[in-house]
Amino acid sequence: MAISQENVKLIFGLKVRQLRLEKGLSFAELSKQTGLSASYLNEIEKGKKYPKIEKINKLSETLEVSFDDLVSLQLSKKLAPLGELLQSNLFKELPLELFGIEPAHLLDLLSNAPAKLGAFLSTLIEISRNYGLRVESLYLNMLRSFQEMHDNYFESIEESVEAFRSQFFQEVSYPYTFQQLEEILKSEYHYQVLPKGLEHQQELKPLRSMTIPGENPQLLMNPKLTESQKLFTMAKELGYQTLKLNPRPFTSSWISVNSFEEVLNNYKASYFACALALPEKAIIEDLRKFLSEPQFNADLLLNILENYQCTPEMLMHRMTNLLPKVFGIKELFFLRFSTSNEETFKLTKEMHLSGLHNPHGTALDQHYCRRWASIEILKELRNQENSEDDGVKCKVQRSQYVNSENEYLIISLAKPSNKNIGQNSSVSIGLLITPVMKRKVKFHNDPVIPIRIVNETCETCPLYDCQERAAPAHVYEEKQQLNAMKKAVDLLTRQ
Questions:
Q1: 159, 254, 274, 415 - which has most CB atoms within 10 Å?
Q2: Cis bond leading into 247, ω under 30°?
Q3: Is 455:406 a contact under the CB 8 Å cutoff?
Q4: 495 residues of the chain, pLDDT tens digit each
Q5: Residue 367 to residues 425, 454, 468: CA-CA distances in angstroms?
Q6: Measured CA angle at 442 (ends 441, 448), to 5 deg
Q7: Which residue, among 220, 240, 239, has the nearest Cα to 230 in the 3D structure?
């Protein structure tokens, strides 16, 4: 595998640092013996400088190692995990600068305890193997962390959306039509839009869309898409082009994930599409009206969907952009659950702002609590499968967690999915009930809103009288048994 020049410098610097420390030399002492300045040596060890041959010779003589060993990319046994980390080009794949981290500083920190680091990295690798964690899972978790760092609000994208709107739409009117967005894709970016492009592609039946790149890109769409889904698909494509996002995925669902940058660009294009469909100034006023009602008014929320011709997921995502930034409600989470039958509910998307709130996607094969509004609304959808009512459903709930002081106001939306496009899904936003939240959300204590005691999964839940239980509480029982054993051992060994 080819190694970048930056990583070659980092490996060389690590070796010089290790050899210097093994000999107990300070920078000043090594400087005196080699004739190289202490500042220059410091730059070498940080991976910022790579010395010329004559200087490497001086270092090898002083450190008592051959020239070939010093310039080799092989590291000692203690530093081997760092070498593997660098040779995997992980630092190239993970944009550490987005998180304010410089690779040299990170390696400098890690190399202070290489043996412990080796054990730590080996443990992480083993955990990832045992639990089947994939690279894309890592990238998606990184994306969530990136969103949380910025409260899921990105001013530069908001500004790009406003500039786009000013350029192509003279009048402030929503929603935009299919024809308007199609015309911009065609005239500005030379697209060919094929609304039925995936009609005969059996292998691609689950996809909503696919883009074929080139001088004249083709946007192939699933003919079963709703009008809102069509608008989002084209707006997202406009996001890729307007923001000049590359690399990017070319399918609406992840088939393979090649880099974190690809995942990040996909998110930015989706952000653009949501912000275009739900303009910041207009939607803020609508949300302010909704939140200021003394009683929960589902019709107001559903009217927003109708007025802007957006999907429930777009609206919920937009709320996660603006509630923290504009209303100061930062303790919140977003969830998307999907199901294909009465027994299986999968958490397919999540985001947590200001800390990790339950539920989250680490329950593996456990059964998520059936008392959540997110799952109850999906069960209600299934019971209405044969009815003619295919409108968006709304459910609200106050969830109090077992053995916790945390209480959340949960708002869930769900709409029956076309069977040709995928599973039924619900999207929910959970607001931690805090003094700030109470001031901003006037209906937080509406007596009509049901209050339910919930837990994360059935397997970890102590509520034995739960009528909705889908699995025995074996994880909870094992934990209780272990605690009892610990107490017994403590009593017997107490002096």
A1: 274
A2: yes
A3: no
A4: 456 777 788 888 888 888 898 899 999 999 999 999 999 998 898 888 899 999 999 999 999 999 888 888 776 666 665 665 665 555 555 566 666 666 666 666 555 555 555 555 556 555 555 555 566 677 777 788 788 888 899 999 999 999 999 999 876 667 888 999 999 999 999 999 999 999 988 899 889 999 999 999 999 999 989 888 999 999 999 999 999 999 999 998 888 888 888 999 999 999 999 999 999 999 999 999 999 999 999 999 999 999 998 999 999 999 999 999 999 999 999 999 998 776 788 888 888 886 656 666 555 678 899 999 999 999 888 877 666 667 899 999 999 998 888 899 999 999 887 655 557 899 999 999 999 999 999 999 999 999 999 998 999 999 988 999 999 999 999 999 999 999 999 999 986
A5: 16, 13, 11
A6: 105
A7: 220
Please name the residue that has the structure tokens 């968006």.
Answer: 392
Q: How far is CA 306 from CA 21, 152, 322, 392, in A?
A: 67, 24, 19, 10
- Name the amino acid, one letter, at 435: P
Question: Which residues are CB-neighbours of 378 under 8 A, at least 6 positions away?
Answer: 337, 339, 345, 414, 424, 425, 426
CA dist., res. 362 & res. 470, Å (int): 18
**What backbone phi and psi angles, to 5 degrees, belong to 312?**
-55, -40
Task: From 365, 339, 362, select the one nearest 350 (Cα to Cα).
Answer: 362
Q: What is the token pair recorded at 170?
A: 């003279």
**Any bridge partners for residue 337, and if so which?**
347, 426
Distance CA 103, CA 96 (A): 7
For 111, the 3-state DSSP assignment is coil
Task: Report d(CA 59, CA 35) in Å as an integer.
Answer: 9
Tell how strand 393-401 and strand 407-415 pair up: antiparallel
Per the structure block, which two tokens stand in for 3?
A: 């190694």
User: Which of the 8 DSSP states describes residue 208?
Assistant: S
The residues near 258 (Cβ < 8 Å, ≥ 6 apart) are: 247
- Is residue 242 within 8 A of residue 160, CB to CB? The reply is yes
Q: How many residues does the chain have?
A: 495
Residues contacting residue 357 through CB under 8 Å, at least 6 positions apart: 331, 332, 333, 406, 408, 430, 432
Structure tokens at 43: 């730059």
CA 196 to chain centre: 31
How many CB atoms are located within 10 Å of the residue 492 CB?
7
Return the structure tokens found at 169.
């739409």
- Do residues 349 and 336 touch, judged by C-beta distance below 8 A? yes
User: How far is the C-alpha of 267 from the C-alpha of 250, rounded, in Å?
Assistant: 13
CA distances from 384 to 379, 393, 421 (A): 9, 11, 19
